[in-house]
């Protein structure tokens, strides 16, 4: 379920940003902040910390912008930077407990142009269930599902971001999806002795 798309920056925008054009740099920064935030959120589980990590990722991205080739896509490079920052912070905070993931900034609205309140409520409940279930996954499973299902990266871009072969991405993603499906199914099962109205 990819998030509502933000158009990736055009090569021309990146070239202008590399030359110091302020509007181009701002457009690129807005795009990068959103992508980095979503990825950081799954990695740290705290919205405020994810905002800090995203900001740091964008700053590092811009410090290396002059070395970026405009024939490449921004996401894998940016997400590699973000992933390294997440790992660095985790090393410094090993004793900190993972908190509940926040959906405040990433609730996806229904695509139906005139959804009823029931449709909106059902979608939001499904998203809450999905993100709650993702907390039970390992960090690597959460990471790969976020890259594919929420940030809509191709298998090749995920491979570049994680530094693994494409085949490894496909097998890891398959296993992660299966584990997530099992967790969701378990959460949806009624508790023992629970009575449902006929």
Question: SSE layout and pairings?
Answer:
Layout: H1 11-18, H2 22-44, H3 47-63, H4 74-92, H5 117-134, H6 139-150, H7 155-162, H8 166-188
Helix pairs in contact: 1-2, 2-3, 2-4, 2-6, 3-4, 4-7, 5-8, 6-8, 7-8
Helix percentage: 55-70%
Q: What class, by secondary structure content? A: mainly alpha
Q: What is the count of β-strands? A: 0
The outline comes out as: globular
**Helical segment count:** 8
Uncertain segments: 95-111
**Gap from first CA to last CA:** 33 Å
Largest sheet: none
Rg from alpha-carbon coordinates: 19 Å
User: How many domain regions?
Assistant: 1
- Determine the mean pLDDT: 80
Beta-strand fraction estimate: under 5%
How are helices and strands ordered from N to C?
HHHHHHHH
3D structure, described in words:
- The radius of gyration is 19 Å and the shape is globular.
- The chain is built from 8 helices and no strands.
- The protein starts with 10 loop residues before the first helix and ends in a 10-residue tail after the last helix.
- The protein has 198 residues and is an all-alpha fold.
- The chain has helices at 11-18, 22-44, 47-63, 74-92, 117-134, 139-150, 155-162, 166-188.
- It has one domain.
- Helix 2 (22-44) crosses helix 4 (74-92) and helix 3 packs across helix 4 (74-92).
- Helix content is 65%, strand content 0%.
- The model is unreliable at 95-111 (pLDDT under 50).
